[in-house]
Amino acid sequence: MARRRIIAGNWKMNKTPSEAKALCAELKDLVKNDDVDVVYCVPAIDITTVVEAVAGTNVQVGAENFYIEDSGAFTGEISAPMLVDAGVKYVIMGHSERRDIFGENDILINAKVKKAFAAGLKPILCCGESLALRKAGTYKEWIERQITWDLDGVTADQVKELVIAYEPIWAIGTGETATADQAQEVCGFIRELIAKLYDQATAEAVRIQYGGSMNAGNAAELLSKPDIDGGLIGGASLKPDFGKIVNA
Ligand code: PEP
């Protein structure tokens, strides 16, 4: 079954609204490709600007975070209905920076996956191991545990719409990329896990990205692997290189 490629930028805490507008203009022609889903996941304050800037193009907008309640006394947070109303289609959750810096655990991430689906947002669910776990050889067990927790109570039909991003922490922002074979090994493992947790049709439908120092030079090889359906791109999503990754 052919899965549609999805290339998503994770801008992280970069770009003011005026810088965001300029970046959208710079990338506009470079990211054209009707065969690929192109997503810019941007800081909350940039969402309105970016939604306007990409209107009428092939780019969809994602958020980097949200909170699981619809409204109320949650100072500093934004909700899924707010994102939907603003024109957001995707939302990242489970990113290692949110797990490690902001203490988000799999119970919260699981609630976020369910809330995103209920609100009409597509989750980009991140998982991945530390260097210590990679060296210890226990990375698959770790990822199995993350995904099993994060998808608890999520239906097969929802998982068919899910994007899972495999992001080894040792490769994020370090310039060190997993080799295409290392990335394929884990992405293939994740697909087998989805088959075990759900069924073969669900495993064949779920889209799995690799993330971790993907760039214009290594994207084509990574994306040629059978279980790598796209990329989640940090640093290189802020540069014209992003267009080369979309068209790799
Ligand atoms: C990320 O943080 O999602 C990421 C993949 O970052 P980078 O591409 O900069 O390694």
TrEMBL record:
Domain of life: Bacteria
NCBIfam families: tim
Subunit organization: Homodimer.
EC numbers: 5.3.1.1
Descriptive protein name: Triosephosphate isomerase
Naturally occurring in which organism (per UniProt): Butyrivibrio fibrisolvens DSM 3071
Family: Belongs to the triosephosphate isomerase family.
Signal peptide stretch: none
Lineage, broadest ranks: Bacteria, Bacillati, Bacillota, Clostridia, Lachnospirales
InterPro entries: Aldolase_TIM (IPR013785), TIM_sf (IPR035990), TrioseP_Isoase_bac/euk (IPR022896), Triosephosphate_isomerase (IPR000652), Triosephosphate_isomerase_AS (IPR020861)
Cell location: Cytoplasm
Primary site of residence: cytoplasm
Keyword Transmembrane helix: no
